[in-house]
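step: validate -> pass
step: tokenize input -> pass
step: predict -> running
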Amino acid sequence: MAISRSGDGYVWHARRQQSDLVANSIDFVIYKSENPARENSDEVCEVFSGVSLAELVSIRSDFPEYGKGGDVSLSIGGIHAIYATLLSCSNWMASEEDFWNRLGFFRENAGRLAQGFLLALMRHDVLERRADQLEGPDAPGERG
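step: predict -> pass
step: emit ->
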């Protein structure tokens, strides 16, 4: 899992399989939320993903085409939406077989990828703080 800082947000350097799993999970949540007989699509989507249906569709539109990896620009809210979507899909489907048939991946892959997002952010924060400390006024080699 590779994430880097970009302005106020992050860039996820997604591998093909990672991108496809997240895209399939988001597509599933969008499908479940967009029921024409229901008037609360946004509320359903927010419970699944933490964001409105329009926001989730916007996040999904930034993904590389299916079968390809690439960089995906995300806010921290977008990362949370992906995290929540992966875990929601894992919990929604009763069996491994159902998960595989609907998303094309094993359920454990979704849980590990969700965990990977969180671990990457935790590592990034630690590395960023260490770099700031090394570049600060007390950094080695910068003393007068």
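step: describe -> The mean pLDDT is 88.
step: cleanup -> pass
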